[in-house]
Amino acid sequence: MRKAFIYIFLALFAFTSACTDDVLDKIDTNPNNPTAVPDNMLLTSIITSTVFSISGTDLAWFSSVFVEHTTGVHGQPEQGDKRTGINATIGNNSWNALYAGALTDIEILIKQSTEAGNAHYTGIAKILKAYNLSIATDLWGRVPYSEAIKGSENTTPKYDNQQDIYTALQSILDEAIADLAKTSVIKPTGDDMLYGGDVTKWTKTAWALKARLYNRLSKVDPAGSATNALNAIGNAYSDAGDNCIFTSFTTAPTGEHPWYQESNDRSHHAVSNTFGNLLTGLNDPRLTMMVDTIKGGIRSYAPNGSAQNDQSGNLYSRASSAIVNATAPLQLFTFDEMKFIEAEANLRLGNQAAANTAYQAAVTATMTRQGVPTADITTYLAQANVSPANVTLNEIITQKYISFWLFQPIEAYNDYRRTGIPTLTNTAGPAPRRFPYPTGELSNNAANVPNVTVNAGVWWDDQTED
């Protein structure tokens, strides 16, 4: 289903962009052949693969359950929620989408766009490379990097240390920023489904990812990570107009939002008791916007670790159609995330006043993006339990956790492992500290796969390379 989505979406884009039949024939015949796919078509494929397969499906669905945005109430998410099915199969599709899909196509695009002098394609590809690779290492820890994507030259790549990968990610982003500043023979336009070829916004997104990755190292180097994050934020988003949000889902079955497909086809997720009670306790006006009622007009939240099977949706509330629908936007990076990072980094450095200011801006930007009326935002921020005189890490990460609902649970899961916020309530046991390595790697590259359990933290979590 995922592969069909990507290539049918690509074909639809090609048609609406008035591409020639010759180009379409080449794509249909051999979509992964670097001699057959021009830069513009490859970029569209990479973006749709990144958004759909990497940011929008299995990794997000299980992260959502682990961090208690949702509760698994059917199938594998239910097993994961009850800690009975966190095994090597849960990440198979996403690992393949990363290594055999997005990252492979990205390397092709980097190579051919560099050779052709299409520097803007090269820069965008490197940002997408850093983004996809960061998801892989954040969720699995040590992953193939330096020997990966070599095809038949090396089918059993070594697993690089996460610390080394994090150093490489910053270098990749520096290269991307330099590429975007160059003259490009051909420039992206409509094939860039995120920014339409706007290199200024792509450059800001590179800095936004740098800030996110620097801040991730809060347990490794509290002060240094904060200083680096703040420096990066200074070059990132100026306002919500810079947000990196995918808005090209369609109502066609192959083009629908992946969370909408999950809701219709599987209905594995209900609103978590942790999330629902959090918003209730904060008198949060987003509750009625985000969460549907069940029969009788009540909102009922599913307890993590002990919920009944409820694929029918009769027992527990689901996300509202205002949130989950066929064409709902999917956020990758936002201005409000940058303000939350700014608040946290300033707090670590002892800059309380700056932390307070950034926090207020973060919550305001989040709620504005989510469609909350200005008057309701003002009332919400007037509450002492939302805006104390001096904001703490708990308020910052709690509000950031709410801002990531429903489509950025990977980031919420990363933050939880860094900070321990929010307090999770799963009665079946603690959340895993990482994803299990997939069956394909255990079968075909066993000698290199780290011997580690899901209860061991990744390097930026516990400072060890397992």
Essential attributes:
466 residues, mainly alpha, Serine Threonine Protein Phosphatase 5, Tetratricopeptide repeat, two-stranded antiparallel sheet, disordered N terminus, Lipoprotein, putative, SusD-like_2, lipoprotein, TPR-like_helical_dom_sf
Report on the architecture of this protein.
This protein has 466 residues and is mainly alpha-helical. It has a single domain (2-253, 329-427), classed as Serine Threonine Protein Phosphatase 5, Tetratricopeptide repeat (Alpha Horseshoe). 53% of the residues lie in helices and 4% in strands. The chain is globular, with a radius of gyration of 21 Å.
Topology:
Blueprint: H1 2-16, H2 21-29, H3 39-54, H4 58-66, E1 70-72, H5 75-81, H6 92-116, H7 119-140, E2 143-144, E3 159-160, H8 162-180, H9 199-216, H10 222-233, E4 244-246, H11 258-265, E5 269-271, H12 273-281, H13 286-290, E6 330-333, H14 335-348, H15 352-369, H16 374-381, H17 393-403, H18 409-419, H19 439-444, H20 459-462
Antiparallel strand pairs: 1-5, 2-3, 4-6
Helix pairs in contact: 1-3, 3-6, 3-7, 4-18, 6-7, 7-8, 7-9, 8-9, 9-10, 10-14, 14-15, 14-17, 15-16, 15-17, 17-18
InterPro entries: SusD-like_2, TPR-like_helical_dom_sf
Keywords: Lipoprotein, Signal
Pfam families: SusD-like_2
Computed over alpha carbons, the radius of gyration is: 21 Å
**What is the CATH top level name?**
Mainly Alpha
**Main sheet makeup:** 2 strands, antiparallel
Q: List the uncertain runs.
A: 1-34
Count of helix runs: 20
- The overall pLDDT average reads 94
Number of domains: 1
Order of helices and strands: HHHHEHHHEEHHHEHEHHEHHHHHHH
**CATH architecture heading:** Alpha Horseshoe
CATH fold-level assignment: Serine Threonine Protein Phosphatase 5, Tetratricopeptide repeat
Which geometry do the CA atoms define? Answer: globular
> How large a portion of the residues is in β-strands, by DSSP E?
under 5%
Category by helix and strand content: mainly alpha
Lateral arrangement of strands in the main beta sheet: 1-5
